[in-house]
Amino acid sequence: MTISKIKVAAALVALFLPLSGTAQIKTEKALVSKSPGVPMPKSERIPMADFKKLMASGSVVILDVRSNATYQRGHIPGALSMPGSTIDAATADKLSRMGKVIATYCACPAEHTAAAVAQDLQLLGVPAQAVVGGWNLWVEEKNPIKTGPDAR
Length: 152
What we know:
- By secondary structure, the protein is of the alpha/beta class.
- It contains six helices and seven strands.
- The chain has helices at residues 3-16, 48-57, 68-73, 89-97, 112-123, 134-140, and strands spanning 24-25, 32-33, 45-46, 60-64, 80-81, 101-105, 128-131.
- The chain is globular and about 35 Å long.
- The chain starts with a helix and ends in a 12-residue tail after the last helix.
């Protein structure tokens, strides 16, 4: 190898080495981890109006990815409490077998947590979408709210 080829190879290694290990997929608890400064891939979003149509038709599984305590204080009727840290391969498999659209929501201004969980599910082969506006828009539009524990 010539000196210039060695320099190019070293530059490529230096460029890509910091990226290795910054985003990893696991099949246990935390599925996607990211290092600061490394943007997460965008996950699919579903507008609130389309989400409501799916709810009316009964063709959606709704996942509230906020904490269980927050869920109990108020959630979208029919939503399952599934904090993001509880998503694993077995859960993804069960959701996949339901044969419905999976919609995640949270109370983050930009649906960050819901998008991360939707992305985790997508990485496990489950089509999932984060609801645009999430919990905050749901409440702002004065939609029905249910309180108490998950009915599962």
